[in-house]
Every structure is written in C-alpha cells, then in structure tokens.
Amino acid sequence: MDAVDRLCSRYLLFLYLLISGSVHQTVSIGVGINYGQIANDLPSPTRVASLLRSINISRIKLYDADQNVLSAFLNSNVEFIIGIGNEIVGSMMDVTKAQAWLQQYVEPYIPNARITCITVGNEVYSSNDTTLMANLLPAMQSVYQALVSIGLDKQIKIDSVYSAIKAMGHTDVDVRISETGWPSKGDPSEFGATPENAAAYNGNLLQRISMNQGTPLMPSVPIDIHVFALFNENLKPGPTSERNYGLFYPDGTPVYNIGLKTGHLLGISNSPASNHV
C-alpha cells in the first residue's frame, strides 16, 4: 500500500476524530505506540525507555522481537506486542519451528518483560504476495499451538485479521488497531501530510483513547489502539510521508504538540522542534 493509499484509507477516521472534540492540553494515558527502527539516528533502547516512562506510554508494538529493546524494558510496566516478520511466516507453519522461535525470543523474557501479544506478518493483505497470504492462517494456528505447548497461551494472545474473521460469521472478536497515524510531512502530491493535520488526527485520537470511547458502531467498547509511530524513521523506503509518521524526532523533541506530557531522553537537553528541518 503506497503512502497516498494510506492517507485515503485514514481519511474517514480523520474526519471523525477532527469533529469529535478538541485536543486535551495535557494527555497522560496508557496509550500504545509503534516503535519502528528503520533509521540510523535513533537513540538506544535504554534511552527510549526513559523517554516513554516520562510521557506515560505503557504499551509498545515492535515489528520484530528485538532482544535489546526487550532487555531495556525488563521489570517495567510496559506491555509489548512483538512481531514475526513476513520473511519467516512460511517457516512458522511448522509447529516445531514456531516453538523454537518462542523459546529463543519470548521465553527468556517471561515474566520480566510483559509480552502480551504476537503478531504474525505485517501488512500481509496489501503485499500482493499470494504465498504469504496463503501461509498466514496456518502460521497463526501453528504459533498458537506452540504457545499452548509451552504454557503461554493464557498470557500471550497470535493478532486477528478482524474483517476476515467477521466475514466468516464470528462477531465476538476483540478489535485491535495495531497502527494508525498521520504523517507530518510528505511529497508535493501528498496534500494532507502536514503538521497541522497530524496534530489534529493524533491529538484527537489520544483524547478518545483517554475517554475510553470506541467506534460509532460500538461506542461503549474501548478499542486497543497503537499510534504509528514513535520516531521519524529516516531509512524507510517510499515517498517522504513514510519517513515522517513519528511523534518525536530522534533526539526526543516532539514533531508537533498533541498534548503529551513533555518527555526527555537521558543525556540530551531538549531543543525546540522548530530547529529540525
């Protein structure tokens, strides 16, 4: 899915958030955030841990099972979603290999790291990879069986493809939005990618999370949401917007104001965001 498609797919949610209320002046809530690392200028995981503690971020989604990150958050109250990359989804159809992956990347951190969910694959149905699509459900089933075999199935949940499950007639599945956000900068053709729109989208999103509100269809059922993303990532391929979804610059200063508590990175004095270009 290219950046223009991403923007279009989020347009209705943007309008809903925009008209649903103004941004709180100070937001300090148990919000989730995506922690991507496709960059060469990011702070160490230990310093990221200090930043997230300072702004009360309590849930993190990784796109892998980075051992340095998990180690930096040992014995904290942060909940982690970790990911099985697309490149190994096929091998995860083998329960033995799925169990070996869990024993290497998950078991050593339990219970000192709060790993609560494992995603299998990323943006699978927008990849045009028919083999990956076919392997996804068997891999999810295999990973779940592996969790059962090592006694972690009650503690860790394998991420649901909600629309597909609903189409099969199942309506009692929790909805989890693993990533949603808005870019603060884009190419000339990406008209909506501005700091003002990003601030409106993410600010009102955080407000709705803080109010425990759900969707228009089920307003009384709060949704587990992870904001995309923690940092701008300067090595991501694609149009300019792909590198500008972050709430923060790599030095820990905010890209725009959305009412989060002022955060800080250990060893760095925050400078105004206007210094960044």
Automatic annotation (TrEMBL):
One GO term in the molecular function aspect is: hydrolase activity, acting on glycosyl bonds
Gene3D superfamilies cross-referenced by the UniProt entry? Glycosidases
Q: Which residues form a coiled coil?
A: none
Transmembrane stretches in the record are 12-35
UniProt keyword list: Glycosidase, Hydrolase, Membrane, Transmembrane, Transmembrane helix
InterPro entries noted in UniProt: GH, Glyco_hydro_17, Glyco_hydro_17_plant
Q: Which PANTHER family match?
A: GLUCAN ENDO-1,3-BETA-GLUCOSIDASE BG1-RELATED-RELATED (PTHR32227)
Q: Which family does it belong to?
A: Belongs to the glycosyl hydrolase 17 family.
Q: What is this protein called?
A: Glucan endo-1,3-beta-D-glucosidase
- Which species is this UniProt entry from? Dendrobium thyrsiflorum (Pinecone-like raceme dendrobium)
